[in-house]
Structures are given as structure tokens and as C-alpha cells.
Amino acid sequence: MIRIFSNGIRKIDNLxxxxxxxxxxxxxxxxxxxxxxxxxxxxxxxxxxxxxxxxARRFAAEKGLPYVAVxxxxxxxxxxxxxxxxxxxxxVDPVGVYYDATQxxxxxxxxNDWESWMTPELEHRAREAVRRLRLYDLSKYNNAPxxxxxxxxxxxxxxxxxxxxxxxxxxxQTAGDASLTLGGADDEALSRMLxxxxxxxxxxxxxxxxxxxxxxxxxxxxxxxxxGVHVLTESFAPLSFLKIFDAVYTATSxxxxxxxxxxxxxxxxxxxFYAGWGLTVDHGTVPERRRARPSFExxxxxxxxxxxxxxxxxxxxxxxxxxxxDLLAEQxxxxxxxxxxxxxxxxxxxxxxxxRAFLSGxxxxxDFVWGVEEGLQKAAASGADAVLWSSKCTDEVLERARALxxxxxxxxxxxxxxxxxxxxxxxxxxxxxxDESGIYYDPKxxxxxxxILRSVPMHPxxxxxxxxxxxxxELIRKHNLTKYxxxxxxxxxxxxxxxxxxxxxxxxxxxxDDDASVKRGGGRIQSNRxxxxxxxxxxxxxFIVFKPHPDVTSGNRIGRVPEDVLARCxxxxxxxxxxxxxxxxxxxxxxxxxxSGFEALIRGKRVVTYGKxFYAGWGLSVDEAGPDxxxxxxxxxEELVGGTLILYPSYWDWKTGxxxxxxxxxxxxxxxxxxxxxxxxxxxxxxxxIYRKLLAN
Length: 697
Prior knowledge:
It comes from Sutterella megalosphaeroides. This protein is α/β, with parallel strands linked by helices.
């Protein structure tokens, strides 16, 4: 049994996944501050070596039991822990704790013996992880904005830095911080740190306060900052901020190690975990135990890849740092995009939770307005971004937004892996897209998706993107995942097995004739009838299977094909089942603009397009219509999937309330998990059921 005294540790989600090794070694957790059953306790778990863990450490010492120190990892979350954000990573140390230089730690033991475990493969992974952390501007907490070129200009002007001036950063910390006390950095060391920095030649010194100090929650560790020294209280993402500095002075802050990631000169005045290994200029007393000279990659691997453990909060399973970076980068991307004021226009009551989720962030604000004119005027007056469902974003609305000088207008639309069940049944979406430029189904205006796809071959993280795309394709194919993931129909699948073996089987998925994608992207062909006739003309000997759209079959939407045309152009009409029941049994898919064409490409089918869907024009389909403007780039299937399913949409996990990746959403859908809905949605479903029953009668 593992005794845990801390109520804080009790509140950590997925603790059993984080500590599976300890559970295997010592047994299950016991959350108690009492002394009952103490004989069955085999280990004690506590939060680091801080004062709050004193009872746990004392109990372990008295009983002669192993003490395992748990701390937040170096890549923790977007928001702060005090705001309720759950950790993506924890450091687990059975020897000491990484910030306590008064005694050995697991990190020290590993680094003193680094050559025994540091392989070329691990070195490459560490180097790649650092590159990706820099690319995505990731740190322990990720709620601060990136430091931009404009920010640098303002800061240089504020401190009076000349172009030739060297910028020196002095990192303040919070008074009484355990890493200072246990890292041997007293008041005298901190004063000396600032004094030494001020002696740097041809330099401008900037003191960066800790965010908790700027917020008034704590006091700074530096007792006195001379007049004239610029103190920066504003918070930025560390890696983009640190880029502008020539040297960094710190006592024990993690900022020092992040400066090493950027190749900066780092002066230490305590004994942080990264000091004493030959990577820093050390002015404090560093333990003589640190006798080795590991590479920077070895220190990174030991701290970020061995000491820290990562758990996917959606799947509740352990993951490697590569996946943690994927997830945290996506969460940060969404948080940065949503760092603004939105005016959401024309959204019905049942869709408002979707809008709140997908536009959420640590610094977002959302106002709902029903009328388009009122909403555009409110957005223009307040400098907010306007958001509309894509079908409401007509040419007239766009013209009006321009006339009012609306800063930015976003189109919202369902994503390509949306839910288990139809959106018209009020199912919450796992995925939506937000497009500032256009919308993916309208080829007349270049969308964000087209821009993304055109740039995928030059993507700075292309190798990882392709790797993820391959995994995603395998997931989709293995589990028959689609946009709505409707249940399979065995009867339809059985019927498909009777298709002739000596003919080319061609699937023609029907659409809704007045659907926006048909109107915008259909070109000369604007109906299911015209599409079927065109396919038959081009394939007189083919065995054509026509699958009408469910909304057309039910009579709710237009697009029904006359019986004489069906008799002449289709060899088989399948009204039941889903596309996934049919795809394994066909050779080709001929479509106007249907998403079924994209799903067929994923599954390796030959696809012929007669309109201009988003997936046409990249060299993967046979395009009868041809693009209005040559796209100029040929994509692999993995690049198309990476841009379309990974980079373009947003994914939201309703159970944990966080942004996530398409891989995570697929894991939910494979389990058949659809988000729970509230009483209003259940009421709407009852009304819809009654309405459909009345229509049927």
C-alpha cells in the first residue's frame, strides 16, 4: 500500500496512470492522514520536499519506508494549476527531488552515469523535442502570449536600448520559493546576481518579475532593484521572449534551462538541476556530486523524458513526450487564437455550448447576438471578431461586414470527424472548423484549408505531421470512422457482396441539390440527376451503385432522381446503410463534392470528381471539372490528411473540457462515447422524434 497524506495529490486526475510503476511495486493508494494499518504501508508519496510534505517525509523516515517525491512536470498545462488545470506531466523521484541540491536526486544519479543510457536514438529524440518546443513556444505553463517582433520593438524603446546594445535578463523569483532555499540561493546571492549583471559591458539589464509577484499574490525574491533598471511585469511565453537576450542571470529558475535550449549564456547563482554539469556559468555553490559532463541533450532527456511522465487526459494512458508536445501545442494554438473578444451571431440556444467550448481560452470573451446586423454593428463598435455559421455568411453579409469595418469575420462549420450520430439529432460535435478566409466547400473563395494544404509540404514540423497522419489513417480505416459514425447495416453489406465480379463497381454518393457545397462547388452539374447521367456517359460498361442522401430519401431535402433516370443510369440503388458499408465493395467513387470522396481517398479508392471539392486538384483524384485556379502543389495522401484532419479543424473533448487532437477524438468514438447532453437538448430530441413520427404518418 502507498500512503498519501496530501489532499492536493488526491485531486490529480489519472494518478494511477502516472504512478503505475509504483502501484506495481508497492500496491494501491491509501489516502489518509491517520496511522491505521500502518504495517501494510510499503511506501509514502508526497508533494516534493516542500513544507507541505513534511508529515509524509517524517512518517516515511520513522517507518523506514521509501519516500517518492511527486512534482509538476516541466510541460504541465496551458492554464495554471491554481486555476484548476490538470497536469499533463508529473516528475516522479524515489531518491530526492530535482530542485533540492542539499541531497542526491534521481536526476543527479542519471546524469552522473549518462553515458550508460544515452543512446543515439534518445539523443535524436531529445534534439527533436527541443526543436519542437521552440517551434510551438511551449513551457511549463502556456497561458501567456508569444513575444512578437512588435513586443521587442516596444521593449527596446522602453529601456532605451541601442541597436548595438546587449540585452541581459535577470530572472526574479518568489520570496521563500523552495527551489531557492533548497538550491542554496540566499538574499546575498540574489543581490550579487543583479550586481554582476549590471557590470556587463555595453548592456541593458532587464529584471523579469515572477507572474505571481506581478499579480500581487507573492513578493519578489530580489530585495532591491536600483533606480533606472527596467522591471518587466508583463508575461510572455518564455522561449519566444528569451530569444532577444544575449545572456540570462538566474538563481534557480526553469527559465535558465529554457535559455539553454536557445543556446544562450546562462549564469546561475544557486544550484538548479541544470547547473554544475558544464553547461552554465556557475557563481553559486554546486554539489560536488555533480561530477559528470553530460551533453545538453542528455540533461534534457533525463529531466523531460525520464524524470517526467506524461498521461493523455482523454485516453487516460501514458504517452511519450512527442505526443505530449502534439497535445500541448494544439491546446496552446487554440488558446492563442481565442485570445480575443468574439461576437457570435445567430446561434440557436442548443448550439451555444458548442460555441462556448470551441471559442474558449484563458483570455477569451464571447457575446451572443441573434440578429446579423446587430451583431456586425456590435463587433465593429467593440473591435471584436464576428463569428457566424458558414451558411449564414453570405456575400451580402461579407459586404456589410466590410462596410462596417469589422476587424475579422470567422465562418464556423462542422468538422470532418464530428460525432457519433447526426448533428441534426442535436449531438454535440467533437470537431468544428473556424475559417477566417472562406470555407472549405466554397472553391470561389480561397479558404484557410486551401492555404494550409498548399503549405503542408513546407510545414516546419512536416515529419511529425506525416507520422501522425499515418497513424490517423490507420485508425480511420481500422475502425471505419467517418464524419457521423452511424451504425453499420449488415443487410446493406451483404447486398454489396453480390455485386458482379467482372465489372468495374462505381459508387455515386448522392447529395442535397440545394446544399451549399453543390451550389458553390458543383460547377456545370447542379443535381444528382445530372451527376448520374454524366457518370453513365463516361462509364457505359461500369456497374453503377447510387446511394441517395438520407435527407433526400426522407423527403426533407430536394435531390430526388426520377425513376426513369435511375433505371437508365444506375445498376443498383441503395437507400439503407452508410457509405462505409459500401466502400469496401467498390472500385471507384464518382462524386460531385461529397465528403465521401475524401473518405474514399483515405481508404485507397480511385476517386473521380465532377465538381470542385476541397480534396480535388492535389494530384490524388481524377478531376473532370478541374480547379478554377491551379493549386500548384501535389500532395501525398498523408499530407492531405494532415492538413485536412490535423491542422485545419479544432477538436474538443467534452468529458475533460479541453482541446485535444483528432487521434483523441477517434479514441472516444471507437468506444462509442458521445458527450452527455443537458435537459434542453433531450427535450429538443423528443420534439424532433414527434415531428418525424407525424411526417411518417
